[in-house]
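hey so i finally got around to running the thing on that chain from the lab meeting. sorry it took forever, my laptop kept dying and i had to restart like 3 times. anyway pasting the input first so we r on the same page abt which one it is
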Amino acid sequence: MTVALGAREDIDFETVAQECRPFLLKIAVASTRNPSDAEDVVQEALVRGFRGLKRFRGDCPLKLWLSRIVVRVAINHHRSVARRLKRWVFFTDMERMQDDGANIPFDPPDPSHDFDREGLMDARKTVNKLPDEFRMPLMMLAVDGLTIPEIAAILEIPEGTVKSRIFYGRKRLKETLQQRKKK
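ok and heres what got predicted. didnt touch it at all, straight out
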């Protein structure tokens, strides 16, 4: 669908949304830590972007504008999940029971043993426990391959703040992993 924006060129929002979707999904996965939630976040962000397209000033690329919406929707999603978790207590078991009564692990170990699976899981858990202010820029840099200026623009914070948060996020991650190794 093409949307007229006055003096600016018409924007084919469907095409832009399709082109930006993989990029937006990376940001959403880094924000939500869950691919299925990330899909919901991107979908909601695209709906909000389409509805609010008349407010798009054109002072930045549309991809960047949409990524800011993704970050805001992800934050709101996180708050919503936190509220639901306060109301409900979930007990999950990391094993599945087969019909014959035997328990099998939910995620069986890799038979190749080419890497330290436990260490990798520790690192993933540690990264996920970092506060959002440190985790999001760190994931955007390390996983998504974004540059410092891109991260700063998406999160709407100064580049120096991005650098600082990445530095302190890495520092916290390193300290926590070193403490676990000592145990």
